[in-house]
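Module 6 notes. Inverse folding takes a fixed backbone as the condition and produces residue identities as the prediction. Think of it as a translation problem where the source language is geometry and the target language is the twenty amino acids. Below is one complete input and output pair. Work through it position by position during the lab.
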């Protein structure tokens, strides 16, 4: 499917067909494609919690303002950003060292820059985690469409509640959730609402 079709035909699905499921194999293919999303210094400061069991879905349902799509979707992804993903603990730094031919000075310089740019304040830490994980989130929805899987992003959540219920680390933050499944074709979505275009949102300076 070409990019234009992917972007113009993807819809946020409000109703999912509970008789159809997303297999673990398809979910893995979606994620493996989506992780080509860009991230700062390629640090990939994110992880995904895939909620599939009825028990955990019910828990998430109660933390998502009881939106039925959480129960109906085949799987709900919790997109988690790491506010300290620039730290030495990130294995990506080791990969970078190999990429630059073992030049430790290059890696050390990148580490220092990342620590300053993304770790010098709590505001910057949060921005780092959310902006990068947000890139992954859109990539996941586009990748899902490529595999014929419908999606719906959600941010009307009890973020602190999800953080506690799903055992996130202190440095992690819940960015959003994404419902995945097959649209219930017996129900009709509202017509696509118009988007504001270049002349309304862009300024050339």
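Target side of the pair, the amino acids:
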């Amino acid at each position: 499917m070409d990019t234009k079709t992917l972007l113009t035909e993807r819809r946020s699905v409000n109703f999912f067909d509970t008789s159809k499921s997303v297999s673990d194999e398809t979910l893995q293919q979606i994620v493996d494609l989506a992780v080509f999303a860009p991230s700062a210094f390629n640090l990939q400061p994110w992880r995904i919690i895939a909620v599939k069991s009825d028990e955990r879905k019910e828990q998430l349902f109660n933390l998502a303002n009881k939106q039925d799509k959480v129960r109906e979707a085949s799987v709900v992804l919790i997109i988690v950003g790491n506010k300290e993903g620039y730290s030495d603990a990130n294995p990506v730094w080791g990969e970078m060292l190999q990429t630059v031919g073992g030049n430790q000075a290059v890696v050390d310089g990148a580490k220092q820059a990342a620590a300053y740019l993304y770790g010098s304040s709590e505001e910057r830490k949060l921005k780092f985690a959310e902006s990068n994980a947000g890139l992954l989130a859109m990539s996941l929805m586009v990748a899902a469409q490529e595999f014929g899987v419908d999606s719906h992003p959600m941010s009307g959540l009890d973020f602190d509640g999800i953080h506690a219920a799903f055992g996130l680390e202190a440095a992690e933050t819940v960015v959003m959730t994404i419902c995945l499944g097959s649209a219930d074709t017996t129900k009709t979505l509202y017509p696509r609402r118009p988007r504001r275009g270049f002349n309304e949102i862009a300024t050339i300076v």
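Reference fact for the lab report: The longest strand covers residues 172-181.
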